[in-house]
Amino acid sequence: MPRAPRGLTLLQAQRWAGTLTAAFGFLACAVSGEMGPAMTALFPLAVAGSAVAGRRFHGRMQWGWTVLLVGALLVLGVQVFAGQIDIILAAALFAELLCIHRLWHRRTERDELLLLLLALLLLCAGAALSAEVTFGFAFLAFAVSGTWALALTHLRFAIEEGRGPAGSAALLNSRRVATPALLGGLAALAFFGIAGAALIFLTFPRVTIGGLRRASRPAPIAGLGDRVDLSRHGTVADDPRVILRVRLDPAPRGEPRDLAMHWRARTLSQWTGHGWQSPDGGLIPVLRLPQRPPRGRGVPSVLSADIEVVGQFTDGVVFTPEGWPLGVDFRQPGTPRPAARRLYRNAAGDLFYQPVDSGDVRYSVVADTDEPDPARVRGRGQRYPSWVEADLAVPASLDARVRALAERLGAGKDPADAAAAVERWLATALRYTRDLPGDVADPIADFLFVRRAGHCELFSSAMVLMLRSLGIPARNVTGYFGGRRTDAGYYAVRAGDAHSWVEVYFPMRGTCVSTRRLPPSAGAGRRGSRRGWCSSGTAFSRGGARSWSTTISYRRRRRCGGSVSSSTRPDGGWPERTAAPGGCVG
Amino acid sequence: MTPAWKRRLSFTRMGRWYTGLTIGIGLAATNTGNNLLFLVLGLLLASIIVSGILSEQSLRGVRVERRLPSVATAGQPALIGLQARNGKRRAPSFSLEIRERGGDVAGHGFLVLLPAAQSAEVAYRFVPQRRGLHRFEQIEVATRAPFGLFEKSRPMDAPAELVVFPREVPAPPLVGRTLARDGERPEDRIGLGLEVHSLRDHRPGEDARSIHWRSSARAGRLIAVDREQERRKRVCVVLDQRPLRGEALERAVEHAAALVSRELDGGAEVSLALAGAFLPAGSGEAQRYAALRLLALLGAGGDGLGAPEPDAEGSVLQVRG
């Protein structure tokens, strides 16, 4: 007597392939960690529920599902409109709900095809949200299960169409169709597809148009822009998109999950009355970065950062890690060809490259990370070279209360102590909030004396103006702070990690001190257990727990009167590379 | 002559969505420069390419022959066979839909799998709605394998014709014109009938069954009997189609066909007289086929044709519209 074949029927295999495809699409999204615990837990529960009781619910309670989905759409839409959630994340969450709905309502070919398309949408959302190597696993698994699902769904409904319901029943319930051989062949086909994807990925011109950039947040952020406006309306939203992928050599001690490092972009030192803008002046080519003055110590600590900037976020700016940058190399590893890009700097010492083309940019930055003794910056007096005059400029319209507050905190003190006092007061007396002040006449006075709460740019701006009113050169610096270690071994810095902080100049051969105690970026919440407003509190207290000596870093500039920026400022700008941590949230 | 390389490509519903989504992801990837989106885009494009290659592989080397039924009658289902042969030595073909293209007949069959170097036959039911000539032009082999995103088809010339006989209806109770007697009748010549034609002397060696014993006893010698040749009933179905149009013509043709069939079934020799055409009397299936074919192809009009000329020796069954 022949033994009955074992395994799945064609119908079972087709349904499971669809479910697996949806699950891997969801996994690609979920590994980003952006979907929240509730929505992350909801999907596996829904899959299990649909496997057990999905058929019984098919076609029932449609009004309930409709109300649920419309309600979710409205809530997510309001959150996006209010800037509380990124639109891609909102789309991913809604696609998850649609996917769950479809998992519970699978009967027709249309249901199955919609499920697969929604799974594909989840994969795409995952591509935008994820930076984990787990995404790669989910991608590969999606490719295989998606191939199964597409082929088996086509086969199932082609048989039903070709043979009719009665004639197809036997074949659909046969265990001789979806055999391991067929599934293996389809998996092999999937790997052909993956190989093709790799080929296309490598050969397709990855150009970036950038013409349809979405307004991911309703307010300007620190990071890349050459202008900051403090009078915007709205709320600072987190933006989970990955902008930098960084590999550090040597790796940070202990290889922490969250990297506490600043990625300096550019200086905004000219006060506009409602914000900051970058200093005037053109770019000059840089053949060789100035070397750090000798400090009479041993071998300096050198950090090499291999940085890959996602195309949308390049903008011609060279990001540098904390420390004195010793060199920037655009050559790809193992490529003997000379780099196509050239390095430039502006009067403030910010680094740029040209030509600015589309696509991702990869370069390596070597920096000297040694920090000078904090005690050395004290007692240096306030005799500043003429080229820092612009960074001493106090707007005539500065509210007298700001000046009075600065004098109360720092008058008569050494500049280092005054800077520490101002920073300490800001960090303790004021509250961080993502709500933007809106159009106010004097955003700094409003921040310090009326709202007594604000976002990062208000903290750093207030500190700069208060220090300048005390006669201490200071300027606003923007970039990113943070980085989460991925399973692939690199750190992913996200757009929500945009950051603004303060650099203070000390006349000790160009030493610059940067702040660290002010609240960090909006994306810091992602690193903590809490999200949203509370995250700033988490990061805030973390910063407050540090000692001053570790929360500031000192960067000497090159000798005054150097040859840099001769076209606009013969005596050079600020410290050559002053990647300095600090605290201001974008 | 359709070239062997000719293909037709169309989107399925899933294919339209898939392609639209691929374009959307391509735009998003190009706009944002997101590497992972480019990777997803690469997978989608690769799937399209793989789909194109495999669908071509499925179609290549497949030959199809149509097998028409010997008889088809309007209103009654007929099976039309499509025999496909995979000429490839190793590669099987998947998910083949074989269908008629062009011509008067629509129908298709589906093959899940056609193994390499093997043949398989599918059939489709065809219910002709009218009598007459039905033309076949092309057979199209189509596949949506492997993913159902696109349908690629390959047309093949396969001209053929099928004559569909008139719809079967009950024969009308017509009264024949009395030009001849009903039933079998003797002819004035020697044959194998039952009636006695003549008596004569028995010839030596002749079959003893031909001896007419009563006459032999009376004459004192062997007398043999010759029987008369008997002829079958002979009927002529007459239809003058000239004044008929449309439904009236169709009804008349169907009635004529029914009469022909009834008389042939009854063992009569049937002739068919139409305006401009005459089928001599005959019997058997060959006569039925010839008569029904003539009726199947009977067209309307023909005003210039001469009137039907009935068989002078048969009973006339006149069909009126």
In short:
Chain A has 586 residues and is of the alpha+beta class. Chain A is built from 14 helices and 19 strands. In chain A, the strands form five sheets. A six-stranded antiparallel sheet of chain A has the order 8-11-7-2-16-15, with no helix packed on it. A five-stranded antiparallel sheet of chain A has the order 3-14-17-18-19. Chain A has a three-stranded antiparallel sheet with strand order 1-5-4, with no helix packed on it.
Radius of gyration of chain B: 33 Å
Ends of chain B: how far apart?
Answer: 43 Å
Mean pLDDT across all residues of chain A, rounded? 76
Task: Describe the main β-sheet of chain A briefly.
Answer: 6 strands, antiparallel
Q: Count the helices of chain A. How many? A: 14
Poorly predicted residue ranges of chain A: 209-221, 520-586
- Give the helix proportion of chain A (percent range): 25-40%
The gyration radius over C-alpha positions of chain A equals 28 Å
Q: Uncertain runs of chain B with pLDDT below 50, 5 residues or more?
A: 176-181
Which secondary structure elements does this structure contain, and how are they paired or packed?
The complex is a heterodimer of chains A (586) and B (321).
Chain A: H1 10-30, H2 36-57, H3 62-81, H4 87-103, H5 109-129, H6 133-172, H7 180-203, E1 227-229, E2 242-249, E3 262-268, E4 270-271, E5 275-277, E6 284-285, E7 302-309, E8 324-329, E9 342-345, E10 351-354, E11 361-368, H8 400-410, H9 415-429, E12 431-432, H10 443-451, E13 453-454, H11 456-469, E14 474-481, E15 484-485, E16 491-494, E17 498-506, E18 511-514, H12 524-527, H13 533-544, H14 548-551, E19 553-555
Parallel strand pairs in A: 12-13
Antiparallel strand pairs in A: 1-5, 2-7, 2-16, 3-14, 4-5, 6-9, 7-11, 8-11, 9-10, 14-17, 15-16, 17-18, 18-19
Chain B: E1 8-11, H1 13-32, H2 35-59, E2 62-67, E3 72-73, E4 78-86, E5 93-101, E6 108-114, E7 119-126, E8 132-143, E9 150-165, E10 185-201, H3 213-219, E11 223-231, E12 234-239, H4 246-265, E13 269-274, E14 277-282, H5 284-296, E15 315-319
Parallel strand pairs in B: 3-9, 12-13, 12-15
Antiparallel strand pairs in B: 1-9, 2-4, 4-7, 5-6, 5-8, 8-9, 10-11, 13-14
Helix pairs in contact in B: 1-2, 4-5
